[in-house]
Amino acid sequence: MTESIVHRPSSAAVAPSDRPLSRLVDRLNTAWHERALQIFMVIVLAHWAEHLAQAYQVYALGWPIPESRGVLGLWFPWLVSSELLHYAYALVMLVGIWMLRPGFTGLSRVWWNVSLVIQFWHHIEHALLQGQALVGRNLFNSPIPMSIAQIWIPRVELHLLYNSLVFIPMVIGMYYHMFPPVGEETHARCTCLVRSQQATA
User: Fold this and answer.
1) What is the mean pLDDT of residues 61-87?
2) What percent of the chain has pLDDT over 90?
3) What is the mean pLDDT of the chain?
């Protein structure tokens, strides 16, 4: 009597494009890349504007730091004072940069990776703050939750700095993605390309 052996494909044998998350990431970095980057940049700029508004409230208007909550915090102070909101945004930024990364190539990928690395550390800092808020104990016996870099730089200035350090290489990466150096324009799989440097030479 012979046994019939049925070979079932293992999950490892399934092509990445057959998985829903892989299909989503593939679309985000091809047909949807330009629109996804535009939406992501609106989110980034809105958050950036909040930090700038907070800095304006502290330095130009002279408001006390606890009262300087940006624009959103004027109407929802409880939301802005929550560590969860800040951690959630840091996580959204990290996931967004990671998921849109495959669409970048060459020099644009280098700058996008710089932004990713800095945002990863920024996320760790917010995870530390969120952890202290959940546990109810703060690092260094501080009366408020503390991140590592906050030992040297006050929180308002620190997170303005972090957002700047993430934003600048992100913008440079997007520039080289839309205006790639000669030879890199053929590697793009999306519609973000505006023109090549060769066309302007």
Assistant:
1) 85
2) 58
3) 85
Of 39, 44, 91, 49, which is closest to residue 73 (Cα–Cα)?
A: 49
Does 134 fall in a domain?
Answer: yes
Residue corresponding to tokens 């669409």: 103
- CB–CB of 81/92 below 8 Å? no
Q: What value does the mean pLDDT take over residues 177-192?
A: 82
Which of these, 78, 79, 102, 103, lies nearest to 89 by C-alpha position?
79
Any domain includes 15: no
Backbone angles phi, psi at 81, to 5 degrees: -80, -5
Domain that holds residue 193: 22-200
| Amino acid symbol at 71 | V
Please state the domain count of the chain: 1
Helices (H), the chain: 20-28, 33-59, 72-75, 77-80, 83-100, 106-135, 155-178, 197-200
